[in-house]
């Protein structure tokens, strides 16, 4: 059972983003395992992907389409089969899925980004199963399907993860809504296993990509469950520009910081939800490190503590054995560590 995590509620639609789900029977019968996201024309998209060298076929295709395509109009997400470790057949399946979506939506195949999650290394028959339910998926597209989509992208998750935030900017209401899945293979180098955040703000070009990078640095790139990085990790930020504001194209724009902070809040909530729903999790433990030489040094110490089996067993047993914390700090590779200056707090600081 997830630690202090309730099912989604009060989820807000984002103008220009329509979603739909379907039962494609990719691994199990009788569960919704396919999600289609359709973006309004003119939407801007940025994404980050796993750095695992064994990255899945849909990651390779999505990277290529994002870099070389005509502009993203749709995302297709399946659960049940990760389409990873599947070689040329997996690449063909991912590309064929994009062609099927493009035919249904009337866009170019390069305008479709594919995503998969589930079992690694199994033969794929994704394109055929996706094609069979796509017509119904297209008919069902609607702006109020975020909660259904958050449930449909789950694999071993026990709770759907979705949240919304709104801010006011120059008298205009800006909405940010996001969803994520993940509970195992969680120590992202860029994002969680799968995460999708959308806003109706007019974030364009370099400002959009920088916003995603900065939000990830303060959220998904600071969590761990088991220390493993998935083959399929991806995080996508979509900006439809439907809010009646002039475009924000540079981080130097005075409005940029407020938009980035709102998106970061959503990303942080989702990242924490992933940890709270970690496989076998019984506690949610924030680790705060200060006084290091720089941010990288603090992160090194934090991850050394978070990945220590001895510390994990102490927390699991509710045993405040702070000696294990000292041992982890001392073995974090900080050559000039001031041992006499180390202070440890358990609980509120």
TrEMBL record:
Top enzyme category: transferase
EC number, UniProt record: 2.3.1.1, 2.3.1.35
GO molecular function terms attached to this record: L-glutamate N-acetyltransferase activity; L-glutamate N-acetyltransferase activity, acting on acetyl-L-ornithine as donor
Swiss-Prot/TrEMBL GO biological process terms: L-arginine biosynthetic process; ornithine biosynthetic process
Claim: Thylakoid is one of the keywords in the record: no
Record Pfam families: ArgJ (PF01960)
The keyword Amino-acid biosynthesis appears for this protein: yes
Family statement drawn from the similarity comment of this UniProt entry: Belongs to the ArgJ family.
Subunit structure: Heterotetramer of two alpha and two beta chains.
Designated name of the protein: Bifunctional glutamate N-acetyltransferase/amino-acid acetyltransferase ArgJ
Organism for this UniProt entry: Acidithiobacillus ferridurans
Name of encoding gene: argJ
